Amino acid sequence: MNQGRKTTFEERVEIVNFTIAHEKDYQAAIEKFGVSYQQVYSWVRKFEQEGRQGLLDR
């Protein structure tokens, strides 16, 4: 199972935009960007609730 990796804010925005543009195809995002399902799902959810601000490092 993919453990994911560290990402920048810009990468998270790109990954979320890609995932949403591809009808929330999480598997495609996982394969293309080398991140985990949990990361992508969490980022998409935060983006939908808070916009880009939700993707900032805390």
From TrEMBL:
Pfam families: HTH_28. Residues 11-58 form the Insertion element IS150 protein InsJ-like helix-turn-helix domain. Gene3D superfamilies: Winged helix-like DNA-binding domain superfamily/Winged helix DNA-binding domain. This is Helix-turn-helix domain-containing protein. One of its GO terms (molecular function) is sequence-specific DNA binding.
